[in-house]
Structure formats: structure tokens, C-alpha cells
Specification:
By secondary structure, the protein is mostly helical. Helices cover 81% and strands 0% of the residues. It has one domain. Keywords: Membrane, Transmembrane, Transmembrane helix.
């Protein structure tokens, strides 16, 4: 059981919520582009978007468990955030993999996950100290 200050977890909640919004907006944008027959709605973009949405569903669930005191859930939030940050950074810099707009979304995800990781680090740092 982790004794984490609510403010530390609240700091993690903001970027996680923003990530969920970005993930859903990305899928909606791809759906619209697909409906319009745009070449920017590539198979690679769809694979990326589906993975992003699955993790967008998982991340808040782990954060909720961390709010209930689960240290493993808090660690899972950190692992998921780290994987998302690295994967999106790679995807953003690989030339020609995604359209420019999706590369910019990937950069935004990197920023949000870095913010999340800072919050997880702060929360884990407080876990060992009594409030």
C-alpha cells in the first residue's frame, strides 16, 4: 500500500486526462480523414491510433488503482508513460512513417507522458515519507 499525497496523484491525473482526450481526438480525426478518402489516414496511422486508444483506456484504470493506494498500479502508470514517451518519440522522428499532423500529435504525447513521469516520480518519492 502506498501512502501518496492526493496532490501528487492529482498532478498525474491532468496529463493522463489530456492524453485520453488526445487519443480519442486522434481516432476521430482518422475516422473523418478515412470517410473523406484522404491519403493521410494510412494503415500505419490507424494501427498507431488503436494502440494509443487502448493505452488511453488502461492508463486511467491504473491511476484509479494508484489512488486507492496500490504501489504496483502507480509503478504501472510510470511504465506505461515511459513506453508511450519513447514509442511516440521514435514515431515522431522517423521520416515518412506518419503524416505531419500525426507526428505533431506524437510530440504532444511525449510531452504529456514526460509530465506524467515527473508526477509519478514525485508520488513515489512521497510514498516513503509520512504526510
Amino acid at each position: 500500500m502506498v501512502n501518496t499525497a492526493p496532490s501528487a496523484l492529482a498532478a498525474i491525473e491532468r496529463p493522463v486526462r489530456a492524453y485520453v482526450v488526445v487519443a480519442v481526438a486522434t481516432v476521430l480525426a482518422l475516422a473523418l480523414l478515412t470517410a473523406l478518402g484522404s491519403a493521410q489516414a494510412t494503415t500505419d496511422a490507424w494501427v498507431h491510433a488503436v494502440i494509443v486508444v487502448v493505452l488511453a483506456a488502461l492508463l486511467p484504470l491504473r491511476l484509479r488503482a494508484a489512488r486507492r493506494g496500490s504501489g504496483r498500479a502507480l509503478a504501472a502508470v510510470g511504465v506505461i508513460a515511459a513506453v508511450l514517451a519513447v514509442a511516440n518519440l521514435v514515431e515522431a522522428v522517423l521520416p515518412g512513417l506518419f503524416p505531419v499532423w500525426l507526428r505533431l500529435v506524437s510530440v504532444l504525447v511525449v510531452v504529456l507522458m514526460a509530465w506524467t513521469l515527473l508526477g509519478v516520480r514525485a508520488a513515489l518519492g512521497r510514498a516513503g515519507r509520512p504526510d
